[in-house]
UniProtKB/TrEMBL annotation:
Gene3D superfamilies: Aldehyde Dehydrogenase, Chain A, domain 1, Aldehyde Dehydrogenase, Chain A, domain 2
InterPro entries recorded: Ald_DH/histidinol_DH, Ald_DH_C, Ald_DH_CS_CYS, Ald_DH_CS_GLU, Ald_DH_N, Aldehyde_DH_dom
Entry annotation: catalytic residues: E254
Keywords: Oxidoreductase
Coiled coil: none
Protein name per the record: Gamma-aminobutyraldehyde dehydrogenase
Pfam families registered for this protein in UniProt: Aldedh (PF00171)
GO molecular function annotations of the record: oxidoreductase activity, acting on the aldehyde or oxo group of donors, NAD or NADP as acceptor
Region (Disordered) residue spans: 1-24
Organism from which the protein derives: Embleya scabrispora
Length: 500
């Protein structure tokens, strides 16, 4: 029995599911079992044309709707997702190999909260007050929607990424064409269908499922797309930037991360150990903000490594439908090979693998599992410290002075998220000021909230998801200026007419 009925196909255009035109099919595979979940008919550029045309057609009405009307349907959407929470959790778990506990307690509630947040935020678009900024005239600022947004999302949190892309865009009055990752498109399609069921007009939300290089790039360069919003790897982000800027589109890039986790010698060691385990293993480490590099001040180093290793060994890998399972597989065999490759190469250049570092056998061999892996004894400039691995792998390195800890935290090209662990107010203030990242937690690592901005520094991109700040990406401001005098020959006309 199929997980969901996608009856008429896997492209969502103008409020309808339809077949893709490429003639190519693609199997969405559950990476925990190797079973096919759904066979897609992929899009080609003609489907993108149809989706963009639907979005363009829906724009005048949707951008002209009042904030209250937009908020009304978004509130209904939040209620519908809540009603369908079990289906969303089940399909998300199957397509991405996530443990059902994670999708039920994290992905789906996060999406409901995000939807409810943007229903409220739609009524709070801010602007400067109208006023007289030059003698005899009145100025006002209009905050306006941009047009058709072309969005591309990654596979790590398919439902949440779809929501993060769609919600601020449409709350601000834009219409959207989203291309989810080809390996995990199903909950984006379910989200789009829920939008229609909630009363969001046809064409406001469209989803095309297809390959990045063909369909994705075509969407990014489409003449009728006014803004490009991309979440994914830094490498693909650079390519998308080139394509989008060729036609001068508004650009928003949420890219890779390599979050440091800095433990000072006065930290609560137990809290830091628990925090590091949860923050490095969430979603099997396939999280752009996951803790990947722990820098621990020398007096706590050995105890920290021993504590994390012990908890890693107790983590239960297994059946993702079982609520008792802690950790699922990686998203694909390809990702499993990639993660294993980083660890094998590190072994080759002398790393100590404290625990893990292996693909489990037995029953788990049918899935793309990888054991939680703790690595020490590598140089700061080694690949495993510098590059994004996107797997359940934590590297721990010691530091001596506070200066050194902060310097090492900043020493990668990325700047998405970071955490500092200390009970000293001055140390924490310094760390939050000097660490270059879009989010710095103190004594915690991972929680992301709808009301607060999320986005990168440095090679992690620019622009913000979530919160009111996301409207700075998804709106443009227009200065409107009224003459308030009715005088035909104004004072400033002297620049042309002189004293005449
Ligand atoms: P990816 O860059 O390989 O793919 C992302 C999306 O881009 C997919 O939909 C893919 O089909 C598409 N794509 C690939 N090549 C393309 C091209 N040439 N033109 C247009 N589209 C193309 O990333 P991924 O492996 O799916 O996801 C993991 C990455 O996403 C990691 O780097 C992670 O850090 C990042 N990420 C960042 C955030 C954030 O908020 N900054 C959030 C989640 C994931």
């Amino acid at each position: 029995m199929p997980m969901q009925d996608f009856g008429n196909g896997h492209q969502y255009v103008g409020g309808q599911l339809r077949q893709g035109s490429s003639g190519e099919t693609f199997d969405v595979v559950n990476p925990a079992t190797g079973d096919t979940v759904e066979t897609l008919t992929l899009a080609d550029p003609s489907d993108v044309d149809a989706a963009v045309a639907a979005a363009k057609g829906a724009f005048p009405q949707w951008s002209g709707a009042t904030p209250g009307e937009r908020a009304g349907v978004l509130n209904k959407l939040a209620a519908l997702i809540e009603e369908r929470a079990e289906d969303f959790a089940r399909v998300e778990s199957a397509q991405a190999g996530k443990p059902i506990r994670l999708t039920t307690e994290f992905d789906v509630p996060g999406t409901i909260d995000n939807t409810a947040f943007f229903a409220g935020a739609a009524r709070n678009l801010e602007g400067k007050a109208a006023g007289e900024y030059a003698a005899g005239s009145t100025s006002m600022v209009r905050r306006e929607a941009i047009g058709v947004v072309g969005s591309i999302a990654p596979w790590n949190y398919p439902l949440q990424m779809a929501a993060w892309k769609i919600l601020p865009a449409i709350a601000a009055g834009n219409t959207i064409v989203l291309k989810p990752a080809e390996i995990t498109p199903l909950t984006s399609l379910m989200f789009a269908r829920a939008c229609t069921d909630a009363g969001i007009p046809d064409g406001v939300v469209n989803v095309v499922t297809g390959k990045g290089r063909t369909v994705g790039e075509y969407l990014m360069g489409h003449a009728d797309v006014s803004m490009v919003s991309f979440t994914g790897s830094t490498g693909v982000g650079k390519r998308i930037g080139e394509v989008a800027l060729r036609t001068v589109k508004r650009l928003h890039l949420e890219l890779g991360g390599k979050a440091p986790f800095v433990v000072f010698d006065d930290a609560d060691l137990d809290a830091a150990i628990n925090g590091a385990v949860a923050a490095s293993l969430i979603n099997s480490g396939q999280d752009c903000t996951a803790a990947t590099r722990a820098y621990v001040q020398r007096p706590l180093f050995d105890a920290f490594v021993a504590g994390v290793a012990e908890l890693y060994q107790g983590v239960r890998l297994g059946d993702t439908t079982d609520p008792a399972t802690d950790l699922g597989p990686l998203v694909s065999r390809r990702q499993q090979e990639s993660v294993a490759g980083f660890v094998e190469r590190a072994r080759g250049y002398g790393a100590t693998i404290v625990t893990g570092g292996e693909i489990p056998g037995g029953d788990l061999a049918k899935g793309a599992f990888y054991r939680p892996t703790l690595v020490t004894g590598v140089a700061q400039d080694s690949e495993i410290v510098q590059d994004e691995i996107f797997g359940p792998v934590l590297v721990v390195l010691p530091f001596d002075s506070d200066d050194e800890g902060i310097r090492l935290a900043n020493d990668t090209p990325y700047g998405l998220a970071a955490s500092a662990w200390t009970r000293d107010i001055f140390r924490s203030l310094r760390a939050t000021r000097e660490i270059q990242a879009g989010c710095v937690w103190v004594n915690d690592h991972i929680p992301i909230i709808s009301d607060m901005p999320h986005g990168g520094y440095k090679a992690s991109g620019f622009g913000k998801d979530m919160s009111q700040y996301s409207f700075d990406e998804y709106t443009q401001v227009k200065h409107v200026m009224y003459d308030g005098t009715g005088i035909a020959r104004k004072d400033w006309h002297r620049t042309i007419f002189g004293a005449r």
